[in-house]
């Protein structure tokens, strides 16, 4: 009977840890967060360079740079 209580404690701790997670961790696409697209090569009009994508492609954003 004592092992049953120990199993319940372990199950309770596991459920508490799972309830604290807000989302399932995954790959974050920072280019999409900047409203850009990932393309191979250089950005052509009407796109401009906005950074690098996680897979090594170029992140391009539509529109013109300001400033």
TrEMBL record:
Residues 1-20 form the signal peptide. GO terms for biological process: defense response. Keywords: Signal. The keyword Signal applies. It comes from the Eukaryota. One of its GO terms (cellular component) is extracellular region. It holds the Pfam family Defensin_beta. InterPro entries: Defensin_beta-like (IPR001855). Residues 30-61 form the Beta-defensin-like domain. This is Beta-defensin-like domain-containing protein.
């Amino acid at each position: 009977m004592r092992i049953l209580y120990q199993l319940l404690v372990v199950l309770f701790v596991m459920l508490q840890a799972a309830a604290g997670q807000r989302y399932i961790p995954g790959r974050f696409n920072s280019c999409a967060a900047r409203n850009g697209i990932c393309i191979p090569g250089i950005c052509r009009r009407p796109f401009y360079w906005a950074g690098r994508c996680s897979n090594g492609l170029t992140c391009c954003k539509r529109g013109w740079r300001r400033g």
